[in-house]
Amino acid sequence: MVGSGPEAMPPFALHPTLARDTREVVRLPLCRVLLMRDRRFPWLILVPEREPAREIHDLAPADRAALIEEIARAGEVLTRLFRPDKLNVGALGNIVPQLHVHVVARSANDPAWPGPVWGSGAAVPYPEGELEELRERLTAEFQQVVENKGRKGQQGRKGQKR
Amino acid sequence: MVGSGPEAMPPFALHPTLARDTREVVRLPLCRVLLMRDRRFPWLILVPEREPAREIHDLAPADRAALIEEIARAGEVLTRLFRPDKLNVGALGNIVPQLHVHVVARSANDPAWPGPVWGSGAAVPYPEGELEELRERLTAEFQQVVENKGRKGQQGRKGQKR
């Protein structure tokens, strides 16, 4: 039985392809945030820790609300660190069925611009030191961005549009 | 000044490329829902009627919550009409900067599978009668799906997970 309560949900397990292709950055209330092992693009993947979600409409409404906020936080983190020309956000899943959302910082100089990153050539792995350094910068930035939002939330609901 | 209230926002105008490539289906509380003139894929585009939103984190939190719900409704409509193998959802904007979200019904038999639809060959226009007929089916299905949600909302908050 699916949907009769959290106790009925199977335990969450990250899809092996996502586990292989990424490094974990941080855990937000809903999603694990992963960094793609592809230095061509600053590329995060958000995976809601919910089984067996496959489509956005499979999530409960409260989880959908959390998902879009966590997508926004990931976009803010990438914007602060990389000043992208554009963010690309996508939930495809044609190959990996577990619901996951890509948030990618795009630059007009990157090798896939203006096309999508998905299906665009082969990943270029980070040297191990570079991957760890970027992971630490991302983790620190998520802490700042999430804390900022918490403070703004406490100060009231006015003036939240940016 | 941006963000000091709705009265300060410039009026919404659909980007001319989106206007040219689509046919309007329905207006939801936040978004205009457009049908892409490309019969290779059942392909909707949701455009929040907010200027000058470019990224998801530019939207106010209440608009983000509305956006993810309207994405879910569009996904449900496409699922009911087309029984897709997978939905693809994407906000790219590398070419058209106005914030817009693609919701596409994908089939393992479609010409781009398993790659993305974006940047995949040239659009195949619908014959005019077919476009209008599909538009009417989509409009009717949106009415049903939105009404269903309204009824569920009134009945209470339990059992919303599907």
Compute the number of helices of chain A: 3
Question: Helix/strand/pairing class of chain A, anyone?
Answer: alpha+beta
Report the CATH C-level class of chain A. Answer: Alpha Beta
Radius of gyration of chain A: 16 Å
Residue share in helix of chain A: 25-40%
Largest interface: A-B, 44 and 44 residues
General form of chain A: globular
CATH topology description of chain A = HIT family, subunit A
Largest sheet of chain A: 5 strands, antiparallel
Distance between the termini of chain A: 42 Å
Please, what is the CATH homologous superfamily of chain A? HIT-like
CATH architecture identity of chain A: 2-Layer Sandwich
Provide the succession of SSEs of chain A: HEEEHEEH
Oligomer: homodimer
Strand content of chain A: 15-25%
Low-confidence stretches of chain A: 157-162
How many DSSP E strands of chain A?
5
Strand order of the largest sheet of chain A: 1-2-3-5-4
Mean pLDDT of chain A: 91
Q: Give the domain tally of chain A.
A: 1
Task: Give a description of the structure.
With 162 residues, chain A is of the alpha+beta class. The first copy, chain A, has a single domain, classed as HIT family, subunit A (2-Layer Sandwich). In chain A, 35% of the residues lie in helices and 19% in strands. The first copy, chain A, has helices at residues 16-21, 61-82, 128-155; strands at residues 22-27, 31-36, 43-48, 86-91, 101-106. Chain A starts with 15 loop residues before the first helix and ends in a 7-residue tail after the last helix. Strand 4 of chain A pairs antiparallel with strand 4 (86-91) of chain B.
